[in-house]
């Protein structure tokens, strides 16, 4: 396996950054008493240097994100550094990684330690990311060249005097794809769906055993429906993989948004349809917690579909004046994007039932990865409106019971 990076995490740089002391979102206790989640701003991406001047970090959508050996890794991703889409700006993909040391909540720590900066082997956005005991698996994604088939393992090595960032290659995916979904059950990593180079949504479902990577990605029974940008969960006690929501691209037609939930039993290798979500939604995040599937935010597709409709009209418009008017409508629509649903949902497998579980008390982040951490969740960066990225790192922690 190639070793792309071996970066020293210098302790001198790991000074306390009191991010959580300012601009913390207020906790939202509406409907989450059973989980007792308290939301705070844990940190943010550091400022960028622009011609010698520090400027606020514009944030990242589709970032590399995960936790290895108590370190949060966030980076790669995409944004619009030279103008938003309606201003003529082009999407840029990045390779910089920010590595934060997470603190121990049991000791009363409330912030990240400031980051060390490393690099991914190549620019990347919208990969499928999952944290495992071996490291953070980063599969597929896209960059300026299109969808990627490459898969890397990010590992923070603490075996030496000072921790080091190591990135090694894993077997490539059989098809280059972006917007796929991934989860892990022990050493076994499951990847589902995604969009290929032609923009078609895939129904692939694959397995990679991290203890025997020489076998590569093994095909499993395909998804019930081609899906990208859904949420894939692993429930180890029941040997079940769940796939919630997501969407499917259609040629010269509106994208299909799903409200579906499907369960795959890893022992009998069968897919089964479960209770639908209350609404169709894609690009959400989620984790398993206390035996339930938690589903955070997401795009319900209203502005997404209106934008698609205008793009379809622009594509067939023959009159230049009409084309300009339609483009102006599209740009105005995106510029005034209302943001995404802040609803939190909880699924109870025993009852096969979804219930509202409160609302996020900050702007809902889509196209990112929720990461389970110390009985809570960390959601880094993401997109909060069309074209608008987020630099904040948010944590939902379970308050101690009195």
From TrEMBL:
Keywords, in A-Z order: Kelch repeat, Repeat, Signal
Keyword Protease belongs to the record: no
PROSITE patterns per record: PROKAR_LIPOPROTEIN
Signal peptide location: 1-20
Keyword Repeat: yes
InterPro entries assigned: Kelch-typ_b-propeller, NANM
Pfam families: NANM
Protein name according to UniProt: Galactose oxidase
Taxon lineage: Bacteria, Pseudomonadati, Bacteroidota, Chitinophagia, Chitinophagales
């Amino acid at each position: 396996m190639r070793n792309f990076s071996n970066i020293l995490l210098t302790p001198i740089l790991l000074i306390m950054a009191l991010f959580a002391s300012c601009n913390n979102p207020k906790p939202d206790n509406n409907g989450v008493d059973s989980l007792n989640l308290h939301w705070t701003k844990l940190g943010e991406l550091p400022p960028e240097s622009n011609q010698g001047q520090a400027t606020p970090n514009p944030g990242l959508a589709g970032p590399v994100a995960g936790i290895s050996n108590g370190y949060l890794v966030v980076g790669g991703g995409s944004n619009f550094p030279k103008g938003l889409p309606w201003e003529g700006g082009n999407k840029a993909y990045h390779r910089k990684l920010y590595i934060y040391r997470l603190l121990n909540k049991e000791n009363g720590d409330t912030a990240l330690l400031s980051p060390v900066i490393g690099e991914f082997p190549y620019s990347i956005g919208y990969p499928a990311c999952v944290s495992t005991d071996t490291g953070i698996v980063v599969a597929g994604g896209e960059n300026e060249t299109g969808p990627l088939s490459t898969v890397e393992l990010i590992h923070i090595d603490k075996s030496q005097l000072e921790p080091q960032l190591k990135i090694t290659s894993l077997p490539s995916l059989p098809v280059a794809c972006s917007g796929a979904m991934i989860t892990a059950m022990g050493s076994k990593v499951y990847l589902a769906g995604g969009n290929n180079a032609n923009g078609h949504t895939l129904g692939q479902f694959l397995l990679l055993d991290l203890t025997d990577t020489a076998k590569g990605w093994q095909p499993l029974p395909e998804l019930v429906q081609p899906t990208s940008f859904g949420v894939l969960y692993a429930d180890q006690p029941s040997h079940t993989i769940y796939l919630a929501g997501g969407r499917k691209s259609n040629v010269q037609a509106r994208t299909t948004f799903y409200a579906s939930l499907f369960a795959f039993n890893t022992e009998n290798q069968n897919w089964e349809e479960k209770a639908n979500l209350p609404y169709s939604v894609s690009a959400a995040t989620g984790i398993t917690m206390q035996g339930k599937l938690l589903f955070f935010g997401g795009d319900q597709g209203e502005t997404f579909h209106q934008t698609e409709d205008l793009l379809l009209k622009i594509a067939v418009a023959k009159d230049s004046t009409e084309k300009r008017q339609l483009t102006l409508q599209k740009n105005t629509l995106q510029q005034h994007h209302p943001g995404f649903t802040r609803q939190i949902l909880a699924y109870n497998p025993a009852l096969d039932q979804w219930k509202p579980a409160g609302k996020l008390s900050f702007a809902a982040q889509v196209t990112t990865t929720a990461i389970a951490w110390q009985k809570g969740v960390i959601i880094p960066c993401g997109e909060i409106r069309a074209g608008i990225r987020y630099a904040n790192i948010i944590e939902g922690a379970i308050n101690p019971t009195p």
